[in-house]
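User: Mind C-alpha cell order:
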Amino acid sequence: VLLPDDVTPFLDYACVGAKGKGRHAVFHCKCGLQADFHEAWRRHPELVENFLLFPTDVAAGELGLFGPERFIDRRVRPRLGDFVAVALNARTLVFPAERAQYEREGVARVGAHGSLTPEEVRIPFVFLETP
C-alpha cells in the first residue's frame, strides 16, 4: 500500500517500508499537525481497511503493544512517534519511491513481518528438558 502524497506533508518522519517496517509503521508528525495527519489518513479507504492507526500513547499504554508501559524508558518514548499503524492483513505500507525501486529491480518482497496477524504472533516454541 502506497503512503499517499497528501498524508506526508504532515510528517517530519515516517518509518515505513517493505522490509517489515511497513507492517508496524511509526509516524512522527510535524508540530501541531497530529489531527491533520489523522484526518488525512481517514480519507483513504485503502489505509483504513488495511491498517489500524493508533496514537502512540494508546498503543504504548492501553494496548501494551510495546510491552508493559512501565518498562518503556522515558528516553525511548520520543522514538515511538505520534502514531503507530498496525497491519490487519498481509499488506505493507511503503513510499512510492521504494515501490518503484522494487518494481525496477523485479524483486518480489516476501516475508515482511511485524504485525498482529495469526501467522506473525503464533511463534512455535519447543522446550526440551535433558536429564
Observations:
- The beta strands are 11-15, 24-29, 51-55, 83-87.
